[in-house]
Amino acid sequence: MNNVISLVWLIPVLPLAGFLVCGLLRRHLSKSLTGVIGSGVILASFILSLLIFGQVRQEGFQAVVVRLFDFISVGKLSISFAFQVDPLSALFLLIITGVGFLIHVYSTAYMHEETAPDFARYFAYLNLFVFSMLLLVLGSNYVIMFIGWEGVGLCSYLLIGYWFKNIEYGAAARKAFIMNRIGDLGFLIAIFWMISQFGTTNFIEIFTKAAMPKAVSTGVLTGITLLLFVGATGKSAQIPLYTWLPDAMAGPTPVSALIHAATMVTAGIYMIARSNILYTLAPVTQTVVAVIGLATALLAATIALKQNDIKKVLAYSTVSQLGYMFLGLGVGAYTGAVFHVMTHAFFKALLFLGAGSVIHAMHHEQDIRKMGGLKKHLFWTHLTFLIACLAIAGIPPFAGFFSKDEILSAAYEKNPVYYAVGVFTALLTAFYMFRLYATTFLGKFRGTHEQAHHLHESPSAMVIPLVVLAVLSVVAGFVGIPAAIAPDAHWLGHFLAPVFEGSTRLHPAAEADKKLEWGLMGISVGVAALGMIYAWSRFSRKPDLEEAQGFGKVLADKWYVDELYDAIIVKPINALGRFFNSFVEKSVIDGIVNGVGRLVQYGGRQIRLLQSGLVGGYVLLMVIGILALFLVELFTKK
To answer: How confident is the model at residue 510 (pLDDT cuts 50, 70, 90)?
Structure first.
């Protein structure tokens, strides 16, 4: 084993150490030292990830499992605490630590108003978040993955509710935590089912056994993969468990960037990509994944059309883009889905950090109707935000174009209806993103005089991460150039090929029709450009400042899904809880417990009368007892 790969355990341990230092010494560390420690451990993990990536990309590299110690051993079941290093985990290590480091650096300036102990608490949570996500992607079995899975759920709760004294923020944190627990139950049941079926939770062993002819029924694989997908809908915010993610905006803006770009919401994509052979062998589940992903992409895009909170627009765009990724997974374009995870990490982190720069300049104002004309005041923020908008809209040569079109092309091969809905969603994406851009940065300033007086570009600690992410949003797509443009130029596809080899062998990819591929790319780009140009011209001249009316109000109110859930789930459960509290708890349970107590007291009072102190009474009881024993012996004797 290569010495560098044998040190893979240091990658998650360093952020864990940062969490412990910042958390335990939060009352003793200065803010500058906290920033150095919190960001430094992530940088160190990133450097190690780069070294491991260099080893993994060497020709002939085989997946390596680094076993640390025995974790669970019960009968024939043995689960090791072990990490798996292969192209998929190596790529995610770079995304998590690279983007995570930039967000940490950005946070040192964005959170400067916090007191030193709270500042340290914030960085402790960020470090723990990165540690949990690293554990999730490095685990060599589903149990270690699940530990990291639960860890990111906990950290999202802590960070969304970071300002816990605000009741609404606390409610948003609880909502995220509870909805994720619903999904996690499906994941947990799937793990127990795999233990029952395969006798292990190890990836390599499960995938090898599942691929054997007639080793496992399609029905069992369908059940396991559907349960895993339930977990993914919670973590990656898909229908029906998506409503927590927009409310996660309650946390600090860098937290939103970390959740939406580099950590939590990509967990579901990673899990299905890692389990690709199981999903390829369960075509029914693949169809469910594709349909749910496409429906989520469209639904979230329609909602984003009428949102006026800058972070809410970006939140719904994340839900929509995740839908694209699930569409890719559902149609078997595993490389395309992972490719979109990577490009999305860059431009979505850039969008959220850019939004944070705007909010910072506007003194915490988030309503885009009160902005406008910020282009001339925030040069770097405006420029980088524009690049991110072009990338997410799928305009070439920006990164989003390459990854999104790879998914749409695969969707067309599977079902042209998927492609049509996906292209329409791309039109909506371009429209709402440039509505956001034009309303925020173009036209006249609509804020207060005090806000106008204090408008200024963000400090360098915030601007430098924006510039780095902007560069990545421009160049990252070139690792996956389509075959129609340059045959055999899809470097990422070749790099990830060993991970998806089993699925490719079962369903070989059809040879690409270059003319068709050019046509599909032309349609998607043309449609996106149309939405972009219309939104730019429309909202730069006449921003959408009025309250939404008619169908627009339905979209502004998010299709009333939260109200529907409240009516059919939350209120009935609360009513049931009140019933159990008032009747079952007080009348039945308390009645039984108190009744037993009263019975014991009554029995004690009556039995004490037997202790009368009269010898005659005792003799009578003795005679009665002897007589009773005599009768028992007489009638039971054989």
So the answer is: low
